[in-house]
Every structure is written in structure tokens, then in C-alpha cells.
Amino acid sequence: MGTDIGDLLQKHTIEIAELSNKVVAIDAYNTLYQFLSIIRQRDGTPLKDSSGQVTSHLSGILYRFTNLIESGVKPVFVFDGKPPEFKSGTLEKRHEIREAASAKWEDAKAQGFEEEAYKYAQASSKVTKEIIEDSIKLLELMGIPYVKAPSEGEAQASYMVRKGDADLIGSQDYDSLLFGAPSVVRNLTITGKRKLPRKNLYVDVKPEMISLEESLEELGVTRSQLIDIAMCIGTDYNPGLENIGPKRALKFVKEHGSIEGVLFEIGKEIEDLDSKKDFFMNPPVTDDYELKWEKPDRAGIIDFLCKQHDFSEDRVNKVLDRLEANMGGGQSTLDQWF
DNA sequence: CTGAGAAA
DNA sequence: TTTCTCAGG
Q1: Positions in chain B where some atom is under 7 Å from a protein CB
Q2: How far is the CA of A107 from the C1' of C5 (A)?
Q3: For all residues of chain A together, what is the average pLDDT?
């Protein structure tokens, strides 16, 4: 998933308070995948309602985004549209890895290998059409805006930030930087601690910001060259060159000026190189969206989460008290932005 | 992951 | 109060 340029980038930990009143374009696919893979029981089973429907993503959205909104963050979810043709290889590979993980999960579970079982359970996570539909339904009920991208969500989100409609992108991946996002924030949560799997270790996890301009300056390359570096290592659109990691990719691209220079030097080719590079520079995007943070529909949320998906009404009401106090109407902290 | 409640 | 464990759906 994504590229491995993270090692080359300048990262700054920030306080969540610094994001107050900032519009954060959320990479929906990335976030939902994270929820599905992490919000699980100890045996690896995701949260499910009584009819067997997975609900991990609903729990994640409800709690995390209520917290972020309470901290003054203004989230807008950006969903993927139709992937580019040349992503099919990656998508197929992900499908195969998921299938294999699913089988290994069953095996490990049957043999009582708990740690392995959990690992493979996570790797078998899939962001299905139903998961996306459920998530959109909950976002609408919570009053959180969302955008459907014509193609890649990260491209659309980057466009929205460049246009000034959003301030930064929330994602664990670095791909948005290739699409020209001025800044990306990772680890977008308010709870500062994360437990390392199967260990008694707790690590402080703070939001981490990456500025495109600063990183480019530090590396001494242009955005076009950063795309070239990423393509040397491998992106969602190409497998990457053999025996070339971030360090050597940077060195080679700087030495030869571009990926074309590197390829000539080592006598290799990348299929559809020009159109892939152009896709990063000029991806399909849309202006067809409206960003409004509205009062949550309490009755609708109770019906959807509690009546349909077996959430505890007590818990949901408590979260909604906090959400209502910070969304739409009245003394909302969000209104002052307009 | 997150909130709630137990343990320290 | 703070830290840790566990269930949530």
C-alpha cells in the first residue's frame, strides 16, 4: 500500500490543539482500513452485530471523530472513485494477499497460534462496498461532510488542500505528497498511547506532520523528482526497481536528474511511465462538493447504531452529548470559521 | 481503537 | 489519581 518514501521525509510531532479549526481532508479508505484491521477482539474477530455484520469501522468513526471534533478539528472524508487502469496489478495483489491471510488465519486459529492468528486476521481486512455505504450513512447522520473522488481519494484530497478548501490531509500513507498535498498529518488521534501488539509496552503516539515544501527543500529535489524517487522504490502503479530503496533512489534521481536518466543508466524500463507520472501531477479531481458541518441526527444515529447494529444506547448517547455540543447550531466552535 | 471500570 | 485490562458489537 502506498509508497515507502517515508524514510526520506521531515516529520514533526504536533499537538492536537494545533489542529483546532483546521479542515482535515480524511483519506477515507486508509482510515477505514485502519479501523477494520485494528478494532478487533483478542482472537482476531472484528466487532460484529448480532446478524454477523462487521461494525469495527462504525465504532472507529463514532468515537475517534467525536473526539477530534471536540478538539476543534473539522474533518471531511474523501472516498475513492474509479481507480486508474494501471492500479489493477496492485489491487489484484492485495486481493491475493487477503485471501491467503484469510486461509492462514483459519489455520492458525485451528492450531491455537493466537499471535499468528491475530496477525493474519488483520491482514485479511477488506474495505467492502457495504463498509463504505455504512460509513457514509453514519457520517451523514453525524453531520460530517464527505466527498466522492472521481478517481483516487488522495488526489482529490490534495486538490482540496491546494485549492484552500482544506488545510491538510489525514492519512497514514505518504502518497498525497506525490499528488502535491502541502501537508499530511499521520496518527490523527487524541489518545496519546498505543499498545504494541502482544507486549507490555506502551508507546506515546502523537500526531505527526509532514510538509511537502520542507521535505523537498531538505532533499534538494522537486516534486516531480520526488515522484520519480517513489517510482524507483515502487508505488501503487508500478512495482519498483530491484535492489533500490529510498536511499539509493534519492541518490540516483539526484545524480541523473530524473527517473528517465536512472532507467537509461541501468538499462531498464517502466511500463506507461509517462502517463503514470502525469497521473501524479494531473489526476482527475472534482469541484463538485460542499463542506458543511451540521448538527447530528441523534434519533437517526440511535436507530442506525443501536437498533440496527446492536450498539449500546447508553454509550452512544454519551458520545452524542459530546458531539452535539460541538457540531452545528448555537455556540458551535465550528461556526466561527465562516 | 476507545471508553469504562478495576487495580495500583 | 493514574495506570492497566478488557469488552465493545
Answers
A1: 1-4
A2: 28
A3: 94
State how far the Cα of A105 lies from the Cα of A117, in Å rounded to an integer.
5
pLDDT tens for residues A131-174? 999 999 999 999 999 999 999 999 999 999 999 999 999 999 99
Residue A9, CB, less than 7 Å from strand C? no
The set of cell numbers assigned to A123 is: 491482514
In the 8-state DSSP scheme, what is residue A235? B
With CA of A49 and C1' of each nucleotide, the nearest comes out as C9
pLDDT at A203: 73
Write out which nucleotides of chain C lie closer than 7 A to a protein Cβ: 4-5, 7-9
d(CA A331, CA A336): 9
Q: What is the DSSP string of A123-172?
A: HT----HHHHHHHHHHHHHHT--EEE-SS-HHHHHHHHHHHTS-SEEE-S
Flag whether A43 is marked binding. no
Strand partners, A48: A54
pLDDT band at A191 (very low <50, low <70, confident <90, very high): confident
Give the Cα separation of A303 and A323 in Å (integer): 17
CA-CA distance, A184 to A130, in Å (whole number)? 28
Amino acid A195: pLDDT: 60
CB atoms closer than 10 angstroms to residue A67: 17
Of the pLDDT bands very low, low, confident and very high (cuts 50, 70, 90), residue A337 is very low
Establish whether the CB of A40 is closer than 7 Å to any nucleic acid atom in strand B. yes
Q: Which residue segments constitute the domains of chain A, with CATH numbers given? A: 1-218 (3.40.50.1010), 220-273 (1.10.150.20)
Is A134 in contact with A305 (CB distance < 8 Å)? no
Cβ–Cβ contacts within 10 Å for residue A48, how many? 14
- The Cβ of residue A13 has, within 10 Å, a number of other Cβ atoms equal to 12
Cell representation of residue A239: 512495482
**Residue A295 CA, nucleotide B2 C1', distance (Å):** 23
Q: Is the CB of A189 under 7 A from strand B?
A: yes
As a rounded value in angstroms, the CA-to-C1' distance for A146 and B4 is: 31
